[in-house]
Amino acid sequence: MDSPVRLIATRRFADDRGAFTETWVEPRWRAQGVDGAFVQDNESRSIRAGTIRGIHFQAPPHAQGKLVRCIAGRILDYAIDLRAGSPTYGTHVSAELSADNGRQLWVPEGFGHAFVTLEPETVVAYKVTSLYAPDADGGIIWDDPDLGIDWPLPADGPTLSAKDERLPRLKDFASPFAYDGRPLDGIQEG
Prior knowledge:
15 strands, five-stranded antiparallel sheet, mainly beta, Jelly Rolls, globular, six-stranded mixed sheet
């Protein structure tokens, strides 16, 4: 199966000084199924382990594909299928991204994106295919029981933004995303 979500293994060159990583090489990433033309780079820094950012998306005509990587610390990164008519609607996949493993997750348009930090002082960088458009900004509440996400959280619970605490449930969401015929069948590794 050709799952739309991709986990990209970057080329890393290590020596006694540390490492050098190729984080974006257009022809190689395109060959692995990352078909976005990037127009904006974003970066977040989370102070605490257990910080959840998401579940976020931008609706058409400003829908975003995201290429996500962790440049300090570790995260568990999620892609949630939000495409109307998809047989895998509401299901998710996840992958651990870290500064050490250098992997990247491609989250295409039509998917919600979220991550939880597994360490304090975690920095995440992501390239997006559409500029930020506040009027198209949307999301699904992180703890929606219909999604079945088992978040690895500290004993005192998650750290969330006020915005993320007020997002709707999946059952109250009318998806603006069209299904493209490719179900979410795990993560395609490249």
